[in-house]
Amino acid sequence: MDSLEIQPLQKPLDAAVQVPGSKSYTNRALLVAALAEGESVLSGALFSDDTDYMAQSLRKLGIAVEEDRAAARFVVVGHGGEIPVEKAELYIGNSGTTSRSIISCVALGNGLFTIDGDEPMRQSRPIADLLGALQRLGVDARSRHGNGCLPVDVRAAGFKGGSTELDAGKSSQFLTSLMLTGPCTDAGLVIGMAGDFKTQYIDITMAVMRAFGAEVSHDNYRRFRIPGGQCYKGRDYAVEPDASNASYFFAAAALTGGRVRVNDINADSAQGDIRFVDVLERMGCTVNRAADGIEVIGPEKLTGIDIDMKEISDTSLTLAALAPFAAGPVRIRNIEHSRWQETDRVAAMATELRRLGVTVEEHRDGISVEPSVPRPAAVDTYEDHRVAMSFALVGLKVPGISINDPGCVSKTFPTYFEVWDQLRG
After folding, report:
1. What are the boundaries of each domain within the chain?
2. At what angle do helices 96-106 and 173-181 cross, to 10 degrees?
3. What CATH architecture applies to the domain 23-234?
4. What count of other Cβ atoms lies within 10 Å of the Cβ of residue 361?
5. What's the pLDDT at 1?
6. pLDDT of residue 75
7. 3-state secondary structure string, the chain?
8. Which of 122, 327, 338, 354 is deepest in the core (most CB within 10 A)?
9. For 3-20+241-424, CATH number?
10. Is the distance from CB of 368 to CB of 331 less than 8 angstroms?
């Protein structure tokens, strides 16, 4: 549908929620399982646009990937670090995790591999820093149109490994791409990091690599060492729920003064976005953390906050949706890198909050939001799932809020709006 009007909740939430598996874990596990020796079974996996593109790409590379959506399970038969085919054209939609990881992966093969995607991947989602790091390792990987974006052509002749430098300031996915492939190279990889980057997703990358039997070490995230000649081992692997998607339900408890428990996720998760509950705690929420779930209880009124969200920037949009309802100003800092994600998320926050009549100031690295009374409006989503899911929260409190292009949530949470319908009863 073109637009979906969000129905306000008639009373504070009191619910337990099961969110789907993590996209970050699912896509990493799919690729590692494809590079492993033997069969892997991924349970609790996410089925979404992004994981569909990864699975389809692996199949085109000659990897057997079976799926059981009803059981949330993938079965992957790996090829021990080899790419079975000598030519493939891979289409990855708007999936950054797929495109970036696959580019390094196909370098292990021998032949010509093309990676292409939707228009945002061709115009505004840069990949030049990853290509430069690969070229310094002797990999012939080039942006076809010279703009540092897709399509990318990789003329693979085996990936020997070696030492390289990488700037992952625009996306930590560049580093993840190299790391996931590193164990399958002959000489291994030593990756020196230039500049600052988000480390939370690198923790996830290392957790998946180690779970499948690979060694990886680092010097305070400034230099990574991955021995070569390793081989991932196929295994049964349980994917944990997605902490970024859990943030919307925690936020709903905060917004309504209600109670929400997200099952099967805990505060020790390598997913940095689980720390969004710490943000809510600072704003006056009560947070109960257990080994098998986290519960958030909202206050009578949220307090304002000034916060650096670099390490949990995917949840900055969630906070932006809550910000107008706080008793004091909310300042979101240090998320300039999110301008190069599915859309310019800093500009999207500011534009859509203004559309709702909210007083907001846009900064280079974030936004400042004043307490406001949002008015009815149709929110544009820029083909960005997180814009859609975050601003839908406003509609739980304010009548007349519509979300344009609600189907964009299929990127990571296809049943998002169905879950809300169930919670309304």
Report:
1. 3-20+241-424, 23-234
2. 40
3. Alpha-beta prism (3.65)
4. 12
5. 75
6. 98
7. CCEEECCCCCCCCEEEECCCECHHHHHHHHHHHHHCEEEEEEECCCCCHHHHHHHHHHHHCCCEEEEECCCCEEEEEEECCCCCCCEEEEECCCCHHHHHHHHHHHCCCEEEEEEECCHHHHHCCCCHHHHHHHHHCCCEEEECCCCCCCCEEEEEECCCCEEEEECCCCCCHHHHHHHHHHHHCCCCEEEEECCCCCCHHHHHHHHHHHHCCCCCEECCCCEEEECCCCCCECCEEECCECHHHHHHHHHHHHHHCCEEEEECCCCCCCCHHHHHHHHHHHCCCEEEEECCEEEEECCCCCCCEEEECHHHHHHHHHHHHHHHHCCCCEEEECCHHHHHCCCCHHHHHHHHHHHCCCCEEEECCEEEECCCCCCCEEECCCCCHHHHHHHHHHHCCCCCEEEECHHHHHHCCCCHHHHHHHHHC
8. 338
9. 3.65.10.10
10. yes
Tens of pLDDT, residue by residue over 212-259, are 999 999 999 999 999 999 999 999 999 999 999 999 999 999 999 999
Amino acid at 354: R
pLDDT in tens, 287-323: 999 999 999 999 999 999 999 999 999 999 999 999 9
- State the amino acid at position 270 in one-letter form: A
Point out the residues that are catalytic. Answer: 314
Question: Tens of pLDDT along 104-138?
Answer: 999 999 999 999 999 989 988 889 999 999 999 99
